[in-house]
Design goal:
Number of domains: 2
CATH topology of the largest domain: TIM Barrel
Number of strands: 18
Radius of gyration: 23 Å
Structural class: alpha/beta
Helix content: 25-40%
Distance between the termini: 7 Å
Largest sheet: 8 strands, parallel, barrel
CATH superfamily of the largest domain: Glycosidases
Oligomer: single chain
Length: 456
Amino acid sequence: MEFDPTMPIKSTDVILHAFDWPYELVTQRAEQIAAIGYKSVLVSPPMKSFKHEDGTQWWQRYQPQDYRVIDNQLGDTLSFIKMVQTLDQYGLLTYVDVVFNHMANESSQRLDLQYPSSVEMAQYAAQSEHYQSLCLFGDLSKPLFEEDDFVEAFGIKDWKDKWEVQNGRISAGDHDPGLPTLRDNPHVVEQQQSFLKALKAIGVKGFRIDAAKHMTLEHLKKVWTDEITKDCHIFGEIITDGGATKEEYELFLEPYLKHTRLGAYDFPLFQTVYDALKPDGDLTALINPYCFGQALSEMRAITFAITHDIPNNDVFVDLVMDECRESLAYSYILGRDGGVPLIYTDLNTSDIRDEDGNPRWLNAWNHPDMAARIQFHNAVHGTPMKLLEANSDLLVFSRGAKGYVLINKSSRAQNISLRHPKSLVDVLSKKAFEPDTSGKVEMMLPSLTSMLLLEE
């Protein structure tokens, strides 16, 4: 039962986060992405942002200068449209990051709050035909936003003060003026909706709301109306340090879930998985974390083992799991029932290396083990999940009548016995296990490993 990347696989719901990939690279890899079994591809914000012939840092993509034009280090409107069309040809949906909380911090170049700046506006005028070919909507002879579209400038100091978080500027400290925060007013909402409608007209089918915890619920609800959300998958980034009973959850995520119908990154489940996989952790916490408020409901959750913020921001880098435990986390995320799994990959943005000295997540998207996990996920998608065995170091559950997930985080091997009448194959190791005359399948699960078994 070898995994064949050229074999057509019925995709279900796995998202590839092609973090900071140029649009042209996504286009080139579309066929292979589809063959592995992904259903959708999430790309970095398709807006106008600072670019340079020598390249720019990833965070520049999260500091928009204009919504009306796609023109950044990853490509422009034309290459973006080609990417969307190519993904569609292979049955893949395009999801995009949108940044609506703030605009670019350009305080080192100017003191005003006109976006785009007078320099960019002059470029629009000088190269009118070019920029008009990139225009998504609106009149490029006029600014998108002006000073009245921004709230009073002050940096966030207390990250547990909800009003301050949703009205202050995200900054790097007292020396940094921060990112100009947009006001919730009719003009801002109109421009944001026009941008979303233009992307939907191109064929975009999903939106990730960056920095959603920094936007008020009133602003979110004004932008994401029924018309905008129709036929789209939308989820917000609301970073918390855990689930129910945690202060950040109560302040930001719980109200968002209660007062909107949008999805969200499942940071409560991530924290639960992270803690459970520690040497002194307890895998029984993964039996049904939703029941204890430690996971989001399966219909609204985006599940993950790592997001782009974790390895690329000093404040979160301690949450990077070692390679072995991240592999176990992915076996759980892709093996369990519930949520939409998101697989992170990049172009070595963080410069974190694996045990062999290679960029850690450069080839995460098409690694044979990841492809095998997606194969398993797609094969058992929608089937019931039943607990078979659990203790602090071992978790075993079935998926439907033909799939099994085995996770061993201990420092010693574990003997597992399953009652199954036919041979089973571990999609990760490709090893086959035959039932004995009594219908039992016996196997040894090595330490710090997992198996995803499918009926052959």
